[in-house]
Design a protein that fits this description.
Layout: H1 3-24, H2 34-41, H3 45-48, H4 55-77, H5 89-103, H6 105-114, H7 120-143, H8 152-168, H9 170-182, H10 188-214
InterPro entries: DesT_TetR_C (IPR054129), Homeodomain-like_sf (IPR009057), HTH_TetR (IPR001647), HTH_transcr_repressor_FabR (IPR050692)
Pfam family, one: TetR_C_46
Protein name: TetR family transcriptional regulator
């Protein structure tokens, strides 16, 4: 990569980081203006258009290029569903997931906050990423002997339920992590106790879901109630 290309890539990442920083202060992506972003990066507004067509394309690129890489790393690292044997498979997967959330809080905060946000482009990009992550987990479950009796359709539903459950923990975990890192007067022992309790509860929720699926029969019929 030439120095010019490298500088362009650095500026592109600076735009991504500016958006993440602004969203971490409580702003939604749809409320952020182009001028705010360029001011954060330290460039004139016209420089923005050398990298993106508009704010929507910036948000979409952020999701695909940055969050996409984060979710791909998560998919490749999770233990749930892998054919090879792991002791305490579910527990280790939950620990890994929450550790990744702690390591990249800005990414995960943006993902969960904007999943149902006001930007159509960002919302669609995030939902597509989550669907890809669900498909990856469903493929992993197909390799696990405990789930071979479940058909492809039900494994996909199980994976989607698992992904949605994982994502429901993010904000509570980030709140504990943020308090631990930024509040000088916090009782660290108490925070650690609360984190361990949350870790225990999350692990137990996942066990209930996946152990329950072990006893599920795909021949079971589902009837909708008459309206």
């Amino acid at each position: 990569m030439s120095s010019r290309e490298q500088k362009k890539l650095q500026t592109r990442h600076a735009f991504f980081n500016a958006v993440l920083d602004l969203c971490m202060t409580g702003q939604s992506f749809s409320s952020i203006s182009l001028r705010q972003v360029t001011r954060e990066v330290g460039v004139v507004p016209t420089a923005f258009y050398r990298h993106f067509d508009d704010m929507e394309s910036l948000g979409r690129a952020l999701v695909i290029e940055e969050l996409g890489g984060t979710l791909a790393t998560l998919s490749n690292s999770l233990h749930i569903g892998r054919k090879r044997s792991f002791e305490r498979q579910i527990a280790k997967s939950i620990q890994l997931f929450l550790h990744m959330v702690s390591e990249q809080p800005y990414y995960w905060q943006f993902l969960v906050s904007e999943r149902y946000g006001g930007s159509d482009a960002v919302r669609k990009a995030i939902n597509e990423l989550i669907k890809q992550h669900g498909r990856s987990l469903a493929d992993d479950l197909a390799l696990q002997p405990a789930f071979t009796h479940i058909n492809t359709y039900d494994r996909r539903l199980l994976a989607e339920a698992g992904v949605n459950m994982f994502f429901s923990w993010i904000i509570d975990w980030l709140e504990l992590t943020y308090t631990e890192d930024h509040d000088d007067e916090v009782d660290l022992a108490e925070i650690e106790q609360r984190k361990q309790l949350m870790l225990h509860n999350c692990t137990r929720q996942a066990q209930m879901l996946f152990y329950g699926a072990y006893n599920w029969k795909s021949t079971e019929e589902t009837h909708l109630s008459d309206q």
